[in-house]
Structure formats: structure tokens, C-alpha cells
Amino acid sequence: xxxxxxxxxxxxxxxxxxxxxxxxxxxxxxxxxxxxxxxxxxxxxxxxxxxxxxxxxxxxxxxxxxxxxxxxxxxxxxxxxxxxx
Amino acid sequence: xxxxxxxxxxxxxxxxxxxxxxxxxxxxxxxxxxxxxxxxxxxxxxxxxxxxxxxxxxxxxxxxxxxxxxxxxxxxxxxxxxxxxxxxxxxxxxxxxxxxxxxxxxxxxxxxxxxxxxxxxxxxxxxxxxxxxxxxxxxxxxxxxxxxxxxxxxxxxxxxxxxxxxxxxxxxxxxxxxxxxxxxxxxxxxxxxxxxxxxxxxxxxxxxxxxxxxxxxxxxxxxxxxxxxxxxxxxxxxxxxxxxxxxxxxxxxxxxxxxxxxxxxxxxxxxxxxxxxxxxxxxxxxxxxxxxxxxxxxxxxxxxxxxxxxxxxxxxxxxxxxxxxxxxxxxxxxxxxxxxxxxxxxxxxxxxxxxxxxxxxxxxxxxxxxxxxxxxxxxxxxxxxxxxxxxxxxxxxxxxxxxxxxxxxxxxxxxxxxxxxxxxxxxxxxxxxxxxxxxxxxxxxxxxxxxxxxxxxxxxxxxxxxxxxxxxxxxxxxxxxx
Lengths: 85, 482
Prior knowledge:
The complex is a heterodimer.
Chain A: E1 5-10, H1 13-17, H2 20-23, H3 26-29, H4 32-35, E2 38-43, E3 60-62, E4 65-67, H5 72-84
Parallel strand pairs in A: 1-2
Antiparallel strand pairs in A: 1-3, 3-4
Chain B: H1 7-24, H2 28-31, H3 35-39, H4 51-65, H5 79-88, E1 97-99, H6 101-104, E2 111-114, H7 125-129, E3 135-138, E4 141-144, H8 154-158, E5 164-167, H9 170-174, E6 180-182, E7 188-190, H10 200-204, E8 210-212, H11 216-224, E9 229-233, H12 235-238, H13 247-254, E10 259-262, H14 263-283, E11 289-290, H15 295-304, H16 318-329, E12 334-339, H17 343-350, E13 356-359, H18 360-369, H19 388-391, H20 398-404, E14 415-419, H21 423-438, E15 446-450, H22 466-478
């Protein structure tokens, strides 16, 4: 698998209030081998917080797949899963 | 140090958002009753024994977010009644902290424990070094007699297997002035004659049992009553959100504030006066001068290092000068300071020009409840641009630097920084106190002290981790006046 895993971290106000800043430390938390496999993007509000069926902030998308109540360990675990698959 | 974004702090912020939404809908008194049930639904995995216990603890958290102390908690009294009292309140109440002792039961008194890594070795350094002879080896493991143990820790220090650990009480361990201890029932009590309101206990308690009392309800009420309310935000607040210059001002306007001041404007006044005062003091032969903008530090000196009292600069804090300016411009306006700090809540209650103090968490919740996304706000043009050094008051070293760039002869200045008033910081402070009492010159003649490690950007009521906040502060400061 050579394509990069794309992680979009919402940095909107609602996500920041619920701790999104921690997820912005993703890059430094990745092992060197994973770092080359992941593309990280900070985004302005993705608008997910306005739709209650989307779960709770903070939001991250990984290869387009939405994760609600995201935390750094949850994001790292999902990246590892995708790499292992 | 406990991460600022943890399960307990997220509960707190969720409650704030829910309360703010209800209040803005005009539904606080009716709706508040359902918050514990909605946050701990029947099918949820409970934190404690069951969801009913979780709900009862959530009730107490709601009461603190409504700005009440939970010490006189009454489980018969309806949340609606607490909400009504909050809405009728004219002023915030002291003390600034309240302890959810229902959560404290989880912490036993600090003690040392032998783990199963113990090898019951032949050397037995734990026994040999114990001054109270309270360790014996039975069943292939060392045992500490809790009655005789004095918690000296020598057994732990001497065990070659690292088999003995200290089980601390996190809030007591975090308190740099020994203001927290357990009473006879095992509940934590704060001695307010010793407490400096640094907020370290609040940040470090893994159960979120040390709580500040929010004033958000009071401020939203003023906004909804159509009062002219002005926001004064600390430089550390600019580092809490992803915002470009002018966007925070736009967000405050959207939230209903009539006018917004950067407290960095007051920081410039503080720095000007402090530079002047430093020169005066050196001319008259003072040994050293310390900064005075951190209220937890100033209180720590008054209570715990009185020898240093005369060295604390007489210059007032950036909040004070900003609030004086706001009051002068609009004598009838309600003034609201917004910062990352618990001690500012105390400084605010004592300053007639400051009506309310909100935290980063409070104001973040207000934005969320109003559906305001700062990044989407159209930036407004600022009428006053503070200096880079004024905006840098929010980080450790920033205040000393602001003074340094202002004194006429910077070579005369020998700055030192106490970055965080933990136990080590308090020791350093005591050394300066000793030097001052003896009139002996020391290496430094300007000492900057911040109670929080890293400065205000790492305060106890922030929402952004300190690393990201430091980067955001740098960007904010860079656009200041040179």
C-alpha cells in the first residue's frame, strides 16, 4: 500500500473546546515509519458539530471516514489498523 | 502533569455547554434537571458503581458550574432551585474553589506500598533503612506496618527492584503550599488561609473533584438582559483558539459583548510602569525587584514568604489597568475578564473595576452554545495594537523580557525566571526572600515569577495543550507592535 493515509483534524471552536489541540500533536506522536505513510491536515470547522447524529466533538476524518469523540490514541490506533490491513 | 484535556475536564466543559445552551433558550430552570440523566443514560458504561451514582456526582458538578459551592450540598434540593439562585445572584461568591468530596473517597491517604515485584531478597535494604523498623518479610514479600510507617520513603529509595511505590493523593502532591489535607473522614479540605488559588489541585485531580465556581451564568444573564457588557481577554486566551487577528473580537461581538479589549494593552502599561519602577528601585539601592502580574505568586509571597513583600513591584496587573481603562471609557458597562487562571477569579472579586471573571473553558462553552466558530468570523480591524512583548506576558519569561526592552540601560538588568511555583519554585522563592531580608545582592535583580509552569498559557482553566498554545501565542505575538 503506497497511498498515504489522509488525516483531517477539525480545528473549529467546538472541537477545540473538547480537546482537539491534543490531536494536533499527531505528527510528533507517529513512529518514523508511520510518519511517511500519513498526511496530516488541520481544517477549519468541518461542520459536523451542527448535526447531532454525527456524535460528539472533536472530529477527525481518516481517509474520509469520520471519527467522533476523537482522541490522539484513538486516531493512532486507527492509523495502525489501516497500515496493518 | 495531568493532560489538560482529560475525561474529567471534558465532562466539565460538556456541562458548561449544556447549561449555556439552556440558558440562552430561556429554559435553564426546567432543563437543568435532565442534564445528569442525559450525560449518564441508563445504557451507558458507568464511571462508578452504577449510572445512578454517576448522575448524583454529575448533579454536584452542575451545581459548581452554576457558581455554587457544593460543601453544603443538599440531595433533596432540585437543580432548578440552584439555577434560580444563580440567576438571582448579583455577585460571584467566595471562596473560588469548591471540593466535590464525594469523589475524594477514591483517594486513600498518601502511603508507600510493596508491589509483587518484591523478591524478599537477602540484603533487605528496605528493612535495614527503615527508621521505624516497621517492615517485615512474611510469605515471601516485604510488608509495611501502616500504623508505624511515617511515610519517609527510604524503603522506596533503597529497593533495588523498584518494588516499593508511593501512592500519592494527587491534589495534595500538586499543592505547593500544603493547603490541602484529609480531615478525619478522609475528605479533602482546603485551608484558605494558606491557599494561593494557583489551581494546581484543580488541574491535577484525576476525578475533577477540585472545582472552580463558574460565573458564566451570571455573564450570560447580563448579556441577555441587554446590559452593555465588555470583554477583556488575556493574551493567553488568544493562544487558546485557532484565530487570526481580529477574529476573537468578532466572535465576542457575535456573542453579544459590546466592546472587546485585549488585556495585552494593560500588559503594555504594566511593563512600562514596571520598567520605570525597576530603575527607581535600583537607584535607591534595592537588592531586587520581582514582577507582580501573577496573582497566585503575589498571594504566595504575602502568606508564605513575607520577607519578599517589599520586593514585589507596586505596579498593578494587566487585568487591573485594562479594567480601569474599560471603566473609564464606559462607567456603566459590566466588565468581564477572560483568562486561563483561577487566581484571577480572586483578584477580580477584589478589584472594583472587574465585575466577572470567565475562564477559557467558560468562554469556549459560550461560543459553542451560540454556534460561533471563530475561524469563520470576519476579522474586525483593531483600534489599538499592543506590542509583541505585551502579548508575550502569557508565557514564562515574557514579562521579564517586556521589562528588559523598556529599561533605559538594559545592561543593568539581571533577569531570572521562576517558571512554575511547584515545591522547587517555592524553595527558590524562599532563597530570594532570604537574600532580600539580609540585603545581600544576588545573581538576579529582576525576578519574574509565574505560578504555572510555562506561564499563563498553561493555566489551570485552559482548553488547549501547552505545546499548541505556545505556537499559537507566538503567531499572535508576532503580529504585535514592535
